[in-house]
Structures are given as structure tokens and as C-alpha cells.
Specification:
There is one protein chain. About 60% of the residues lie in helices and about 10% in strands. It is mainly alpha-helical. The chain folds into 3 domains: about 5-85, no CATH class; about 85-105 and about 185-220, no CATH class; about 110-180, no CATH class. The strands form 2 sheets. The chain has a 3-stranded antiparallel sheet. A hairpin with a 5-residue loop joins strand 4 and strand 5.
Length: about 220
């Protein structure tokens, strides 16, 4: 058999394996989604209730196809890397961190830390260091004042006075944002996360670590 004939035979084998892999994957999805099927075509019966076996066949076929096309995939990856401007990577990382913080973050105070920091920021915005609890004459249950102290605060020196338990550093940065709107205060953490990623990149660049535009010329492992 000549080289051309071997190549054509290999191509036909790849096509058949690709068709079988796709069919097995579709079968696994259908069985997994519906719980199985039981069909009859004339006198033949087609039945499947387990998605594991077709999924295993699809995985084996995919692995064989990837191995057979490893050189083509390596060449395509090299061309994609050459065409991509690596200087965009730090910016993309910063944008992803900021987007993740905004999309998956919270805009409410739901715990001791968050309420303590946000509450102290609002106090600082109004020029105050302490707050008060609504003590009334009818509040005569045991430790009534202690039960009215919110999370993140503690009882002050005077009756009815409460003070934040957390250091004022973060609330001092939050306070100007609180002046903008009720929700702007929650933008600080996502912005700081994105800024941290950018500063790590700049620190590495200043320490002599090759920048993205220099990665292709770097001979280091």
C-alpha cells in the first residue's frame, strides 16, 4: 500500500470514528436527559437506560481523534498564539476579575464583617464615631440593650451607645463612595480585586519577569 492509499484509508477511519463518537455522545445526552428509551423498528428492539456506556464510548472516541490530530492541533495552536497580541492578557485578566466581582458579588450587608465595615463607613460619612440603640422604657427583657446591638458593633461606655468593632481603615475608604449612592460602597472590593491583579503584573514586570510582548522571545523554560 502506498503512502497516498494509507492516508486515504486513515481519513476514512477518522470519518467513521468521528461519526460513531458523535452518535455515542448524542445517545448519552438523550439517555441522561430522558432517563432512557425503548424503541421498536419492525422486529428489532432498541433499548437503553444507562448513559454511562455511550458516554464512555464517546470519551474514548474523542481521545483517539485528539491523539490522531495532535500535530494539526499543535499547528493551529501555534498559529493562534502567533496571531494573538499577548499584551492583551493582563488587561483581559483585570477585566475578568472586575466582571466576576460585579456579577457574582453582593450589594448588601449580610454578615458581621460586611455590616460592621459598611455601618462604620456611614457613621464616618456623617462625622460620627458611635451610634445609639433605641432603648425604651418598655424594653424590660433580660439584657435588652445587648439584644439591640447589630452585628459588627459592641456596647459603648455609655448606656444606649454602640461602637464599631473593626479597624477604621477600610470604612474610611468606603465613606466617600457611600456619599455617591447606597450601592456605590459595594464597588470597592471588586475594584480592589481588579487593581490587585494589575499591580501583580506590574510588580512582575518591574522585577524583570518578561512582559507578555516578550514571551515569544524568552528562551527560559
Amino acid at each position: 500500500m502506498t503512502a497516498g492509499e494509507r492516508g486515504r484509508a486513515f481519513g476514512r477511519r477518522v470519518n467513521w470514528i468521528a461519526v460513531a463518537t458523535i452518535a455515542a455522545g448524542v445517545c448519552a445526552l438523550i439517555v441522561g436527559w430522558t432517563g432512557g428509551f425503548d424503541l421498536r423498528f419492525g422486529g428489532a428492539r432498541l433499548r437503553s437506560t444507562a448513559w454511562e456506556r455511550p458516554a464512555l464510548l464517546a470519551a474514548a472516541g474523542s481521545a483517539w481523534l485528539l491523539y490522531g490530530a495532535r500535530r494539526q492541533l499543535a499547528g493551529a495552536w501555534a498559529r493562534a498564539v502567533d496571531a494573538f497580541d499577548l499584551r492583551l492578557l493582563p488587561g483581559a485578566a483585570v477585566a475578568w476579575v472586575l466582571a466576576a466581582g460585579l456579577l457574582f458579588g453582593t450589594f448588601a450587608s449580610g454578615g458581621a464583617d460586611s455590616y460592621g465595615y459598611v455601618g462604620q463607613a456611614r457613621l464616618l460619612l456623617n462625622g460620627r464615631l458611635t451610634d445609639t440603640t433605641p432603648i425604651r422604657a418598655g424594653f424590660n427583657w433580660p439584657d435588652a440593650e445587648a439584644t439591640l446591638i447589630p452585628l459588627g458593633f459592641t456596647q459603648g461606655a455609655a448606656t444606649g451607645v454602640i461602637a464599631p468593632k473593626y479597624p477604621p481603615g477600610l470604612p474610611m475608604i468606603m465613606a466617600p463612595l457611600a456619599a455617591l449612592s447606597e450601592h456605590a460602597i459595594y464597588l470597592l472590593v471588586p475594584v480592589c480585586g481588579a487593581l490587585a491583579v494589575w499591580l501583580v503584573y506590574r510588580l512582575g514586570a518591574d522585577m524583570g519577569i518578561p512582559r507578555p510582548e516578550e514571551w515569544r522571545r524568552c528562551s527560559c523554560p
